[in-house]
Amino acid sequence: MTNHLPGALLLDLDGTLVDSEPIHRAAYRAFFAQRGWDVTDLSAFTGRRAQDVFASIPGPWSEADPEELAAAVVACIPSEAAPEPVAGAQALIEAAASHDVRVAVVTSAAPPWAERALYDVLGVGQHVDVVVTAHDVVDGKPDPTGFALACERLHVSPADCVAVEDSPAGVAAAVAAGVGNVYGLASTHPPGDLLEAGAVAVYDDLGDLAADVSLTF
User: Fold this and answer.
1) Which of the chain's ends, N or C, has fewer CB atoms near its CB within 10 Å?
2) Which residue out of 14, 19, 52, 143 is catalytically annotated?
3) Active-site residue (options: 12, 19, 52, 166)
């Protein structure tokens, strides 16, 4: 736990700030059904860019182009689909802003989804200093590039920062980037998986997490 304000707050988006997993899982199921592929375990796709999973994990897609597959999955998301905010997400970002703690969002999503979630769903886009999306990196989580890039753009040392992630891939990415304190949010994965990936602690609630990093609502 920290007893002073972090140099910056580095936040995942899907599953951490917005409850979008039901939407994404439905899109994957629709996509696999269209292809006639029997894929029931979607855990490998959580917190990662679809193209990275298609490129690295064997499956019925092995001969196809990962980028084209990822685009086809996105196309299965209805245009009217909107994720619900995770409880406490807006308050956490506003608390950081009120304490002059800079905020970066590091996401495996594309820019349009990130902008929609931060501005239309959460209404906190004005408080987010840096957004690193899937289009900003060659390799997505668990590669640390996204978190390292966020720190570079914020002009802060990763060691002085706090990161919050809901997936093992995201936790591992933040740890590998040298982030000083990486916390897990048990919204999509069991706490044990997040701790095994390197989280220093796991929370069920963003309010409790905020209090422990001195960002009380």
Assistant:
1) N
2) 14
3) 12
Q: Is the pLDDT of residue 49 over 70?
A: yes
Q: Residue 193 catalytic?
A: no
Residue 1: pLDDT band (50, 70, 90) is: low
Q: What is the pLDDT of residue 53?
A: 95
CB 169 within 8 A of CB 48: yes
pLDDT computed for residue 80 by the predictor = 84
**Candidate CATH numbers 3.40.630.30, 3.40.50.1000, 3.40.50.300, 3.10.129.10; the one for domain 8-19+84-212:** 3.40.50.1000
Domain ranges within the chain, ordered by starting residue: 8-19+84-212, 21-75
Mean pLDDT of 159-179: 97
